[in-house]
Q: What sequence folds into this?
């Protein structure tokens, strides 16, 4: 990008260069292809100048300067490497190694360590200073990350990342001198601290001090990193669809890291969460490698695809012919890609005229439909990025963001940076210590509290676009004392004061935003959803989008709902289902209303990467093994339903596991009703059109 | 005139470790007692406390540079038990394949580098030449074959773990990486030559024992129990299975899940050695002496699952499965080569198995048990890793019983027998001292393993007087006569 | 250097470095004739005398009084002292015991460990005494050549020997240095 930034002239290792004014010497050298070793420096966080590895000689001065914090100056002469500089760097390295017990030979990060790389580069084949061998503590109270202080060089990258990227400020230096340690909340274990285990500290750690306990020793000498493949994709575990870089070796997923770490243009500054970074590395269940049929004794027996598909098609056809399509149901996970969702819907309706097709999270969709009907409002939501612009955020719901751990981090940071005020109606989000107001009402009182809030707000404003309904509330609100209602919810005097303040601030904010947590629009119902939508509508700008984000339970819930995979009506109480076909992606279990209908079931087939558990496992007669989400390409729909994002496959599926689309197409063929679309691109385009044009 | 003497051999060389022998003579110059001291302890059992369990496979393999794979596997198995997980089939096959590589290299190392000087050059050969260099000079072709056989084993380890010594491969729940078919093909090319060399070794040792039957019968031959892992059909299994202990006549005394080892095995401490003395609890100490390692296993199993090795086993049994020779320590060398053949066959089988190339190589999960015991047959015998962890997976207790430990009593018995046989009236000669070392060398003791606890074991023979004064300390020199 | 007399010793370590030396495989057949091994765990000489040694090689750290004595004697009698492996160079994995009192270490291993019966700490005078801390060789005697690694690769070991044979004091290139 061409900018008009002022340039300065400097001399780098005898070569004259013109560089932007305001750069550091380190940045200037890197732009000019000169390598300077660094340890405490990391591009995603601010410069610190702590480790002195990046020292250079400036204008022949006898004192070496840290290039990462020295700004360029016109006419400056910089020498980046000579004997004196190398000696200084090697001595610093030796001090770092001798100060603690790095023990590379059993370090889980050996081979992936910047400190070690530097020692090799500088030919540090021994220590000329004596090691103390003093022992430092190890914190492995968290199941995902270990912190071995023996390997810590106190570079402070983790401290800065924890503060600057996540806004958590959990990590900081404790004690002094050689006893200095990185501490959680000053002096806690990781598990007992307010750390929310996002792992950003681990991602920036240059040594093995903070390491991933699930993936150790992958780069030890002999394991060539050249065989590693980095694949950019997105994480579909929640609707945020965060951009990721997955590192894969021999078809084993080694790490998931952010592909946008420290990107200040993003609301989340490129952070990932515990789920996307660690849970993806775990084995969530027992994998199915071959089609399985349950024998009479209830044991699973291997079979081939031909047989399994033939069996499923035959029975479902038979049920349709004998009892009619109404006896057959279909259930699909909203973790699935758009293409899979559409194929599943088509397969169920075309092949067997299934009486009922739904998603595991169909209830949440019906909550929204219900709210839409009741409020008579068009519910068009904002994107997650709009959190960046908001100056007042009203969060509705208990445990609002359990499934979206990055959201509270974004909010915390905004509050700390004084960019927004945040109020939470509900309790439980321990990850948002920084919020300004909290009305700690229980789940059962959220409905009434939001209603009161709506009425209160409506006494304060005149909506840009109003509705008859709102006017009704407005009129009602003038007569009712909301404080009275609130006392019934058990709020104390201070909280009542907060309530008024929240209403006032929400009413007058330039960019208010209502966030509805996934739990508040849950399988069990959606307390306060309707009034929260009305609240957002009260502050709508007439742009067509409500200042509202409804968080959804699965990574592709928005796509599933838009593609009609979820049923608009709940499952009937006595549906009389005889047979069913389920597509699970990540060990989902059906809600009670669906499972209650399993009693009469004579046949159940399940597409799943894992042996199904609970009611599904008990009832299933056939398992058709499909890939994990990371073993399949597919497109996902952003949570606001406005964008389609392609998720790239990062691993190969096991040999006898069939691509889910191919499996569905093959099953349709067996059933004698071939499906039209076959090709991924075609499917992708078709679903994209369906999703975007609405 | 010297009425009594103490003889010390220090270090016992060509064994992998640190030890010495002290022989006490009585007034007549006959052997009063002979002790094999292990003189080093390193403290792994204590210093691992507090470490995260996931590091243990990589820490504990540093116990030994000769059988690091065995330690890593026993450790990984203990960690699997802590996770409460059954590892994927592919991972188990790959681990076993690496283990076979370990056996091939270790058995080849022992036979060709360490034991062959005695067998090929003779007990009484010039000590200056009685080593692998001497074998290289005198039998260059055989030496080259031996070198290449060991290399073949190391290459298997490297193909999986990336390097030959202290590879990172087995982790809790499985292994780090799979095996590519290209690498497997490269390995497959090496079998023909390996089988050839193994055959030569078996024939050599078979002939040697045949030619020296009397020596084999007399040399450190004693009655003891034998122990090793067996599969569900009582056959040799080096990677997994139940632990079986048989009596001197090969009748089964006990067969148990190795996780219950504490009920069957105790360890006695003697003030003069850093290596403890495991014994079979039912028999008590010192009667519960049992032998592990090649001869222990060969005597404990009913059969071998692979055809060629089983045939060799039958041939071996026809000749030596007799009460008067079964306990002869020199048979260790023979048994070792039968096992080597089994390992080649087993490695070949695994490479041919389609499941070896699966992509499911690791189960990733969190600890669900606070205790885990991992047991495996290391080249030198049964290896037990027993860990206890807190709820986060930090080690709270570590107990290790290594192969050489199990054989400690047997080695001491052997030393005593040989010393009594060859030292009479104070007449001590270098070749005889070498026989004492040779007795120890039969067991291929890995003293880096046994000193996981701490300490060093150079082997030294000291001659002590009846009142305990050191009279002679054995000094060997290249010129010939060993002691001053 | 014409057929240098080389003594190799194995102190507080695991034999992995000696094994890595053997991993030179067929190349051993070229290296061995060029040197004269006077003391080594792989030969039968047992003096620990090191008379007229040109090159001394130490694998392992120093953890007991006997090892200290051996290291001092070897240093005294050889011209070039080489440290093989992380234990000799840095102290290595053995140093994990450096913050544990030897008393506690011994009493766990010989009294408290679960399989021990009638335990007592071995105290025979035949047994060397532990030093309070395990130390790298260069904290106790001067070292001339360092070959770190756990173990150092066969190539690194061969390289350092070959350089010595050519009369040079080798410093490993970065590509041959590793600590794991």
A:
């Amino acid at each position: 990008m061409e900018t008009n930034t002022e340039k300065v002239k400097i001399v780098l290792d005898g070569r004259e260069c013109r560089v932007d004014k305001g750069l550091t010497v380190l940045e200037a050298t890197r732009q000019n292809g000169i390598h300077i070793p660094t340890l405490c420096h990391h591009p995603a966080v601010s410069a610190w100048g702590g480790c002195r590895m990046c020292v250079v000689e400036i204008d022949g001065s006898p004192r070496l300067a840290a290039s990462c914090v020295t700004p360029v100056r016109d006419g400056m002469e910089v020498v980046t490497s000579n004997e004196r500089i190398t000696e200084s760097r090697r001595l610093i390295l030796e001090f770092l190694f001798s100060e603690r017990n790095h023990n590379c030979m059993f370090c889980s990060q050996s081979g992936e360590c910047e400190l070690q790389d530097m020692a090799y580069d500088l030919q540090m084949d021994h220590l000329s200073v004596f090691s103390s061998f003093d022992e430092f503590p190890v914190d492995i109270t968290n199941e995902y990350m270990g912190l071995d202080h023996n390997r810590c060089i106190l570079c402070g990258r983790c401290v800065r990342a924890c503060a600057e990227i996540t806004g958590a400020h959990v990590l900081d230096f404790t004690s002094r001198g050689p006893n200095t340690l990185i501490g959680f909340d000053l002096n806690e274990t990781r598990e007992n601290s307010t750390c929310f285990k996002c792992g950003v500290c681990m991602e920036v750690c240059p040594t093995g001090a903070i390491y991933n306990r699930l993936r150790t020793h992958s780069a030890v000498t002999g394991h060539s990193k050249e065989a590693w493949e980095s694949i950019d994709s997105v994480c579909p575990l929640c609707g945020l669809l965060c951009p990721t870089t997955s590192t894969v070796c021999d078809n084993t997923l080694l790490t998931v890291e952010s592909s946008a770490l420290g990107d200040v243009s993003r609301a989340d500054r490129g952070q990932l969460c515990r789920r996307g970074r660690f849970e993806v590395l775990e084995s969530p269940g027992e994998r199915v490698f071959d089609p399985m049929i349950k024998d009479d004794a209830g044991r699973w027996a291997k079979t081939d695809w031909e047989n399994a598909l033939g069996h499923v098609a035959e029975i479902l056809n038979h049920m349709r012919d004998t009892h009619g399509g109404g006896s057959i149901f279909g259930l699909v996970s909203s973790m699935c890609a758009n293409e899979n969702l559409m194929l599943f819907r088509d397969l169920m309706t075309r092949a067997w005229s299934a009486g009922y097709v739904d998603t595991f999270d169909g209830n949440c969709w019906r909550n929204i439909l219900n709210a839409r009907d009741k409020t008579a409002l068009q519910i068009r939501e904002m994107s997650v990025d709009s959190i960046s612009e908001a100056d007042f955020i009203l969060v509705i719901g208990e445990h609002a963001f359990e499934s979206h751990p990055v959201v509270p981090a974004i909010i915390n940071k905004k509050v700390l940076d004084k960019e927004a005020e945040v109020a939470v109606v509900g309790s439980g989000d321990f990850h948002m210590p920084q919020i300004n107001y909290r009305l700690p009402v229980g789940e059962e009182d959220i409905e009434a509290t939001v209603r009161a809030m709506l009425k209160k707000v409506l006494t304060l404003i005149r909506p840009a676009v109003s509705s008859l309904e709102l006017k009704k509330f407005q009129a009602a609100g003038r007569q009712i004392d909301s404080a009275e209602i609130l006392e019934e919810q058990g709020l104390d005097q201070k909280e009542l004061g907060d309530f008024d303040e929240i209403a006032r601030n929400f009413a007058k904010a330039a960019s208010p935003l209502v966030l509805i947590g996934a739990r508040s629009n849950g399988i069990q119902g959606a307390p306060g959803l309707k009034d929260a939508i009305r609240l957002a509508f009260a502050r709508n700008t007439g742009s067509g989008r409500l200042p509202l984000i409804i968080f959804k339970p699965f990574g592709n819930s928005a796509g599933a709902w838009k593609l009609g995979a979820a049923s608009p009506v709940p499952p009937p109480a006595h549906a009389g289902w005889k047979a069913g076909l389920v597509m699970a992606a990540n060990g989902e279990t059906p809600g009670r209303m669906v499972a209650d209908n399993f009693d009469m079931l004579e046949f159940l087939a399940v597409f799943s990467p894992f042996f199904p558990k609970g009611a599904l496992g008990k009832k299933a007669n056939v398992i058709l093994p499909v890939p994990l989400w990371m073993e399949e390409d597919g497109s996902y729909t952003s949570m606001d339903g406005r964008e389609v994002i392609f998720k790239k496959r990062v691993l190969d599926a096991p040999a006898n596991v069939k691509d889910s689309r191919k499996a569905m197409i093959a099953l349709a063929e067996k059933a004698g009703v071939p499906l039209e679309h076959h090709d991924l691109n075609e499917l992708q385009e078709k679903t994209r059109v369906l999703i975007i044009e609405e | 005139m010297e009425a009594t003497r103490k003889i010390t051999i220090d270090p016992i060389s060509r064994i992998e470790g640190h030890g010495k022998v002290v022989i006490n003579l009585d007034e007549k110059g006959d052997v009063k007692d002979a002790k094999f001291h292990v003189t080093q302890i390193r403290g792994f059992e204590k210093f691992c406390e507090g470490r995260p369990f996931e590091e243990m496979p990589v820490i504990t393999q540093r116990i030994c540079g000769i059988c690091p794979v065995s330690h890593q596997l026993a450790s990984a198995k203990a960690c699997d038990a802590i996770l409460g997980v059954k590892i994927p089939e592919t991972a188990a096959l790959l681990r076993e394949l690496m283990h076979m590589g370990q056996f091939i290299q270790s058995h080849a190392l022992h036979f060709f580098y360490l034991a062959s000087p005695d067998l090929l050059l003779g007990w009484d050969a010039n000590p200056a030449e009685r080593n692998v260099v001497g074998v290289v000079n005198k039998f260059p072709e055989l030496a080259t074959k031996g070198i290449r056989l060991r290399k073949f084993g190391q290459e298997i380890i490297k193909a999986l773990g990336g390097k030959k010594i202290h590879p990172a491969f087995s982790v809790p729940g499985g292994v780090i990486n799979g095996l590519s078919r290209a690498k497997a093909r490269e390995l497959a090319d090496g079998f023909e030559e390996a089988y050839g060399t193994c055959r030569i070794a078996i024939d050599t040792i078979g002939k040697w024992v045949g030619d020296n039957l009397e020596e084999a019968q007399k040399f450190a031959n004693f009655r003891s129990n034998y122990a090793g892992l067996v599969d569900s059909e009582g056959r040799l299994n080096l990677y997994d299975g139940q632990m079986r202990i048989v009596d001197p006549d090969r009748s089964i005394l006990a067969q148990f899940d190795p996780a219950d080892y504490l009920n069957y095995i105790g360890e006695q401490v003697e003030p003069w050695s850093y290596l403890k003395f495991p014994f079979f609890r039912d028999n008590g100490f010192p009667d519960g002496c049992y032998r592990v390692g090649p001869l222990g296993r060969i005597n404990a199993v009913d059969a071998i699952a692979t055809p060629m090795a089983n045939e060799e086993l039958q041939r071996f049994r026809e000749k030596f499965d007799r009460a008067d020779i079964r306990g002869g320590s020199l048979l260790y060398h023979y048994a070792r080569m039968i096992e080597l053949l089994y390992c080649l066959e087993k490695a070949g089988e695994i490479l041919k198995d389609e499941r070896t190339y699966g992509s499911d190589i690791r189960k990733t999960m969190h600890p669900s048990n606070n205790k885990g015991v991992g047991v495996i047959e290391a080249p030198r015998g049964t290896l037990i890793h027993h860990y206890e962890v807190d709820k986060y997976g930090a080690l709270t207790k570590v107990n290790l019983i290594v192969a050489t430990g199990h054989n400690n009593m047997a080695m001491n018995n052997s030393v005593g027998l040989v010393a009594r046989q060859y030292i009479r009236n104070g007449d001590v000669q270098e070749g005889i001292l070498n026989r004492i070392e040779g007795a120890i060398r039969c067991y291929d003791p890995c003293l880096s393993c046994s000193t996981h606890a701490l300490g060093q074991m150079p082997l030294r023979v000291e001659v002590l007087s009846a009142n305990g004064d050191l009279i002679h300390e054995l000094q060997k020199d290249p010129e010939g006569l060993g002691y001053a | 250097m014409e057929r240098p007399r080389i003594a190799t010793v194995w102190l507080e370590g695991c034999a992995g470095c000696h094994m890595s030396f053997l991993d030179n495989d067929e190349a051993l057949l070229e290296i061995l004739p060029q040197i004269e091994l006077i003391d080594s765990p792989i030969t039968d000489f047992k003096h620990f005398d090191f008379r007229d040694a040109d090159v001394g090689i130490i694998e392992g750290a120093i953890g007991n009084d006997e090892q200290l004595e051996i290291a001092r004697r070897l240093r005294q009698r050889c011209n070039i002292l080489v440290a093989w492996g992380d234990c000799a160079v840095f102290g290595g994995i053995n140093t994990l015991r450096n913050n544990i009192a030897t008393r506690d270490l011994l009493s766990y291993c010989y009294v408290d460990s679960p399989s021990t019966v009638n335990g007592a700490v071995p105290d025979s005078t035949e047994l060397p005494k532990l030093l309070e801390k395990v130390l790298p060789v260069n904290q106790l005697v001067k070292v001339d050549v360092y070959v770190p690694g756990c173990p150092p690769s066969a190539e690194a070991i061969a390289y350092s020997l070959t350089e010595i044979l050519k009369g040079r004091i080798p410093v490993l290139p970065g590509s041959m240095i590793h600590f794991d």
